[in-house]
Fold these 2 entries.
Entry 1:
Amino acid sequence: MAERFIVEGLGGKKVLKGEIKVGGAKNAILKGLAATILFEGDVVLTNVPEIEDVGAECAILEELGATVVQKDAHTYVVNTDGITHSDLPDELARKIRASIVFAGPLLARFGKVVFPHPGGDVIGPRPINLFLDGFAKLGATVVLEHDSYTVTADKLHGTDINFEPISVTATETLMMAAVLAEGTTILNNAAREPEITDLAFYLNECGAQITGAGTSTITIVGGGMLHANGISYDTPPDRIEAGTFVLLGALAGEKVLVSNCVPEHIEALTTLLKNSGVKMEIGSTYIDVEGCEAPKSFDVTTAEYPGLATDLQPPLVVYLTQGTGVSKLTETIWKGRLAYTADIVGMGAKIELADSQHATIAGPTPLRAAELKSPDIRAGLAFLMAAAIAEGTSTIDNVYHIDRGYQHIEERLQKLGLNITREQA
């Protein structure tokens, strides 16, 4: 049943205070779950976030024949020995973009995978040619029929693959496929996100031979199936969640402690905020942030890691509506990602789009309450932030999208002092 959030705005007051703990990274666990297909025997995954996309991926694994046991709220045990086929369930696979990462391990292990064009957030065109071209270079045959792809190969063979443009998900998917391929695969112009480094480190602990993760060139020497041998995959902290909470603290906090994070993973953001006037104490696993009374505007461009993550762009735009002066934002990753700004304008913001990838934001502008509907994970959370600093009471419908990436968000924000409730729509 559809649900919505009711948010009583703070009217620009800096009153939120307390600690908010960052959960496991969505963009890491979804790849960690897919990687279990490369293993014989049990794989234990810990610090798993309680989000909708985890449930969707677990359902895909079970549909394939795997066993998924939830030991507690954040610990899962997955065994893929019983997988009986490699056709991804159509309806489930279309729900989330990350379903495509299953294609790499399934193809490598079974010599065949069938999957639909993946779904996910509506944030612009999301072609999968990098995946298909990569599979072909590894020796597979790709056939498209009725919006479904059938990829087959007697055995994958190591090769050189060049990514243009850089793609996080393609890097991860082809890295996993290469783990079971014959020979050596080199991924050039590979993505460098921390989640990739973390996944490669775990796979290496369990028998893979991957070097260069975290750089633009990753080398994989193929081998046999992996074995966890009791080593668990500990999901790293979610850097997007950490950055979002830091932005909320800067906007509406008296003093907010963002804990259980890796500050260096969001250094691109914290550097911008420091220059904007935000006071922060940064430790090894925390960021203590104070609300900024008169933040300075700045220009910013999203980029692949270590640049500013595109997933932090929507909450950053909300922050910039309160900046003094004019900010210019360039979105380089997803062409349709700025569409949500029309709703922020409806709340009183002064945002002008030159095109689908360039925005000018003038501030500071007080925001007023509105009735909103989440279009995707990150814009939905940005709407929640906008509602938090607005004057009056806002409603945010379609919160399923927010739940896909942020666990129990209303309970965590209530503890900081925000008046937010969840109800049936």
Entry 2:
Amino acid sequence: MLFAGQLTGAAPTPTPQMIPGPAVATDEPYQPQALLPGGIVMPVFPPDSSFLNASRVREDEIYEMHGQVPGRIQRLKNVHVPSIEIHPVERNLSTGAAIILMSGGGHNHLGIAAAGTDMVPYFYNYGITTIILRYRLRDDGYSAEVDAVNDALQAIRLVRSRADEWGIDPLKIGVFGSSAGGEVATGTALNYPAFDAENNSTDDPLAGISSRPDFVGLLYTGPSILTANPKAPIPIDVPPAFIASASYGGKRHTIWSTDYYMAMLRLEVPNIELHLYGNGGHGGGITDRGRIPFGTWPDRFIDWFRDLGFLQKPGIPTKAAQDTAAQLSAQK
């Protein structure tokens, strides 16, 4: 008995093409490979950087592929050479905005699919350049609060240093972190003044380039340092933030989201937006989630992003920057 779509004697299905894979380890520092076609991949630190563990920079990354979808990298780990992968938008469509994505994974791996590579085409449709950050992991012996955050701060500086080359507005570069990646994202928002002060020597090629993100996106975030220490210092020009989580099925992530939100609210930081959905659970990234309200968070993010002026053409001052400047002026 034949079913629809079956043919007697049909040729076998062709082998999947363009399957991404890690580079082969050599005697030289590892060279991260593109996760998606056309990705421009750059390590965030030079190979002799004191930030790196010199004894491990030659190890290759480990890819865990999806069991049912050919070519889909589900998880990635063993990151010892943190890198960025840039997916630019052509200049006639570009808003100049750039989002540095930080996937979650409990600091054990990077869940690089739903909260990473899947987001690239979505943001492309809005003229946003997307950049995937591969940051170092606690499971590989690093400190999430220090090493991963340093990777992200350095990534912001690197992108800003190449903004003109990549068609990016240097005042429209921000971060978007999911789950554990949200911990890293909030780390950039709170720690950039110290990082810039500590990395300003004459032999640093990025000295003088700010690591401050112009915006922060947090999706079912992990805890920020404000959870453990509500009195931790907050920069006077801390960037605006968009926060989304599901209350039912993701309680602790909602608590961590509100910890960050309330700290910003108490300081009257402008343009902090919080969405708490009644149902949805943890994970899922940018997936539709069966058309439940939580599945619409990307639309709400774009609403917020547009409202703050990030979807205007490059070079036009954003509302976000103007509101931050007004707040700074009022506090002088």
